[in-house]
Design brief:
With 120 residues, this protein is of the alpha+beta class. It has a single domain, classed as Double Stranded RNA Binding Domain (2-Layer Sandwich). It is 32% helix and 40% strand. The chain has three helices and six strands, in the order E-E-H-E-E-E-H-E-H. Strand 1 and strand 2 form a beta hairpin. Helix 1 packs across helix 2. The chain is globular, with a radius of gyration of 16 Å. The two termini are 28 Å apart.
């Protein structure tokens, strides 16, 4: 079974749930676009035997891309595998340091449920 996550934001003294039972990939999309006028977008370019992947916001009004984070992966003959590795890198950063992408919290669903029960 695949791990699902809960995303929450501090709302004064209370915590507000933003999303529940979502995949890490969906959490990544929500974190990047939260509070901003733009769609989450991933761009890539080639560089010296590597692919540089950038995740950020594509602003609807100007179509300008605002990079949030980038990762470097070794260029292979399998572009989708390279993209999967980049998304995995982004997800790892989201789980280990949410501040890179947004000001909220992300927790594995089972941990979030236990924490909620302890608080009541």
């Amino acid at each position: 079974m695949r791990t699902t996550y809960t995303m929450s934001l501090c709302d004064g003294e209370h915590e507000r749930i933003v999303a529940e039972k979502i995949t890490i990939e969906r959490a990544l999309v929500l974190a990047v676009q939260h509070g901003h006028a733009g769609n989450t977008t991933i761009l890539h370019r080639e560089w010296n035997g590597f692919r540089i992947f950038e995740i950020g916001r594509l602003h609807r009004d100007t179509m300008a891309f605002e990079a949030v984070f980038e990762t470097l992966v070794k260029h292979t003959d399998h572009p989708m595998a390279d993209a999967d590795e980049a998304i995995g890198n982004f997800a790892e950063v989201l789980l280990n340091d949410t501040r890179v992408f947004w000001s909220g919290r992300i927790e594995a669903e089972d941990f979030a449920l236990r924490r909620a029960k302890e608080a009541t």
